[in-house]
Amino acid sequence: MSADLLIDGLSTLYTCDPSAPGLGEHRQVSLAFAEGELIYLGPPAHAPDAETVIDGEGLIGLPGLVEPHSHAIWAGSRADEFRRRLAGASYSEILEAGGGILSTVAATRRASRQDLAENGRARLVGLRAHGVCTVEIKSGYGLDPATEARMLEAAWDCGDTVRVVPTFLGAHAVPPELKGDRAAYVRQVIDEQLPRVRHLAENIDVYCDRGAFSLDEALEILSAGKVAGLKLRAHAEQVAYTGIAAAAARLGATSVDHLERLPDADIAVLAQYGTVAVLLPGAQLYLRDIPPPVGALREAGVPMALGTDLNPGSSPVHDPWTIAALACILQGLTVEEAVLGLTRNAGLALGRPELGWLGKGSVADLALFRPPAGEPPDVAGLVQQMAGHRAVVLVRDGELVFGA
Ligand code: NIG
Ligand code: FE
Questions:
Q1: pTM, 2 dp
Q2: Can you list the alpha helix ranges (DSSP code H) found in 228-332?
């Protein structure tokens, strides 16, 4: 049997296979791909021949990384807001005064589908360079039916760069034209936006928080999304506690994200429903916030995923490896938890259990990294060192994306 692609004699591979202990570590191993599938994983001596052969000596292999929470499509700049926040203004104050998310909304409404896709693609090329194969992209900077749809269409256009998982986030903020009439906007989200975008999105998300949507409004929107056949997510317990994390879990949400103010009682509910906790240490850092309750999540057995939360305001972070280091330093994750957070648990957060690991039943995505200078081929060096690691080889669906 001959393969299309052989990675020969890889020094260290972490499959992150759910049926393997720990990170599913293998030393001195070869992997072969044919017709979009992983067809061999084992000792180099028994590997099949292949058309393309890549020497894995000295390299670290991981499943193609999964980005479970991004706002990677936007127009405009918030660099000036960064200055204002450094001078003391808070994120919520800026939003309430019509800036923050709403300033991105104004710029995004003016941008064409082509412009949005072009900007988005440039950011996704950056994520891909770090070893990311799959990126969740949220709408939420349109806040009207046409612009929400245009953002999601632009997300689809970016599918030539990474595997895109599109999420509808009409309930991100109340648009300026309906300021003060949240009820009217909730109706628009449910009656006008959702029917228009339901076939463009895989998930629905809500920002339930002080200054955004209430628990009742968020649940009404998520329930409508569920009826429309979308998977559910929520921005939860970030600025103020609302109860959305537990309530969304009960409704069947695949993940709840942020969670800085998640109380112990609600952690038990996430554990009971198998909801993934998506941690976003970039937002914690930029907003100088407190960490989510990682020790209690661990103890309860809640799977933890990590996202960049890539967006122009609260987390302009383009590198999942920086996020992994921050998750360990600021939030208390172990190296192994951080790696699972960028891979298998990120796939679970998206309700896509075939993503983020390598083995029978997984997608055939692989990222190879050279260890930082002087380091052994061990993933701990990648997590420890904030060097903006770039993949030297990337394989998606069994096809070489770059490297040879
Ligand atoms: O996940 N918290 C709300 N939404 C985003 C921020 C988006 C923005 O600031 O533009 C978040 O942090
Ligand atoms: Fe977000």
A1: 0.98
A2: 244-250, 264-273, 281-286, 294-300, 320-331
